[in-house]
């Protein structure tokens, strides 16, 4: 029985590990803390914290940083995480591009690189390029502890396969677990892209603490969502929960590749948006444009300059995103919804409409309390999310994964 | 920080408690087990199990039951849960009726009683009746360890208030936590009705084990859902996650009391079904009928007898339930969906259509694996669920809640 095994898997050393993990996670978010502050946050005695911190100092995971002001103005020794000692590689894989970055476990970026490829390009060649770049980074950065890989969903987590990606049929049969599991001498963790975005916002986003439940709403070429409910990623049976892009908003609507009708993705993706934009504003698309995100931004810029047709197009997609938020609220009751990916670049153009729709279409107890924000991460949330996948795993089991002295 | 407090809340005695809880939960589902079987299921040594079981025997929570056949045909002593020593009261509260039952922690029913009331009846009088009946049961059954209360949703868990119940505005301001918290000398646990149904199916349903993720789809006068994802109830920020009844299936549809348009509840509730039925089949409704469930059953019986209009009505609602299942799959990726409450009495009349819709509208990887079933619990799932709310809580902390010698 799965749930019993999980409970039973705990033993005294696991428990010590959970407490170590909790300390590392506090320091990941707070930079510098005193032992007394940690003790208070964790509800443990200072003696226990001293012991746990002592072990982490010995491991080299944390350091003392001299005297800081503690509780009640007493001067105490500060503790900080040696984030730079533990790096992760994040790999974002999407329809036209893969991106690879090196980060430390506090989310600081060291290097990143994007590689474009065609939808019809040989999958083996793309994978070989990706692995080569990872191998080069492992050679260059010696203290990498884990690799996180973010894939477009729905990703069948147990099988290692992408179940269906619109316009990417050739990737359907790649087994990512087999491809990556034993390829490097570092652990590789794989999640779907919207889940990665949710973890990025959870770990690296500036949303205040405590935070109990966060939903990341990815609105780009694909439309999806990732849900952290009470500190845990919602995964479902096969790992493909929270596919909001394929929740219908019109049961009589047009047919989607997934078989459903009226899927939200058909109304609110960049594909849907640009199709309309090219019809209504052909003058914006006379020159070759670099990619979809930039093409969308042309329309947003036109709206910002007062172009009436562009404003109407942006208003329309904001309404659909609003319906999506209402669905997310009724499905997951999040404390915060963070909207990310290409369409989120419309930012202040779409946010008032989204909030109005949520106010109109949910009960006041909900609309008055849920926070709806545009992602402000300075790094692509899916790439950052790939790093967060790895960070999440290693910080939950520090002595298993982190570098020690 | 919530998540850190939760982790930090664990200490060595909590861990022992988690292992005791795991043993009690194994026995709750398996009736009789040997120590070796428990050790194998939990991945612990037999010596640890012997110690843990010894404590539970001393507490009187479990007993030895003589020789049974163990692993490899060896004769071993069987262990069983003394379920009858620990009873719970379940209280179901719904729009026209409240029901109270006494159960043991293996789900066996001892007694139950229903009390009807009018939607406009004074809430204080109804609550006083409910409390009086609970008090009488506490006097009659001395070994009750906890009380579970299932309320119609969306129930704001932290506040103790029902946020909105269609057609029950007078109940909006009752604070159930205040009303019940200190009323009895037993702990009272409160959840929304569809969550209660999910826990009932999780604890008492016959769905095989292991089971990772289950969604209960309540289709009655209200429409809702309860989601157990990887052994944990999905709750959200305010406790009102998984309100599938208010997820829209048509963003241009009719306006719902919640403010949204085209809510699933407007198409698939008994209210919607009976409204259509009275128009199309007035001959079935000439006599006064007792309640909505029975009124629905008249239509189902007519369909079973070959009445074409009744068959068309049932087919139509089965399609809407199918769309609801597709939404649940895209939202939660459950291993199993269990459909319960009044409309589920249509059983074999609706199941093939529901399965067809799911097959048409989801990817094969999902439709071929998700199990869709009609609830077969012999007891009203919401009342049973109220008992499951209490059972879930006490079995997760046996030495805190269970009666001991």
From TrEMBL, chains A, B:
List keywords of the entry alphabetically: Carbohydrate metabolism, Kinase, Transferase, Xylose metabolism
Q: Which GO terms fall under molecular function for this chain's record?
A: kinase activity
Enumerate the transmembrane spans: none
List the Gene3D superfamilies hit by this protein, alphabetically: 3.30.420.40, Winged helix-like DNA-binding domain superfamily/Winged helix DNA-binding domain
Pfam family of this protein, just one? Answer: ROK
Alphabetical GO biological process terms = D-xylose metabolic process
Q: Which family does it belong to?
A: Belongs to the ROK (NagC/XylR) family.
Known role: Transcriptional repressor of xylose-utilizing enzymes.
What is this protein's record name?
Sugar kinase of the NBD/HSP70 family, may contain an N-terminal HTH domain
Q: What is the lineage of its organism?
A: Bacteria, Bacillati, Bacillota, Clostridia, Lachnospirales
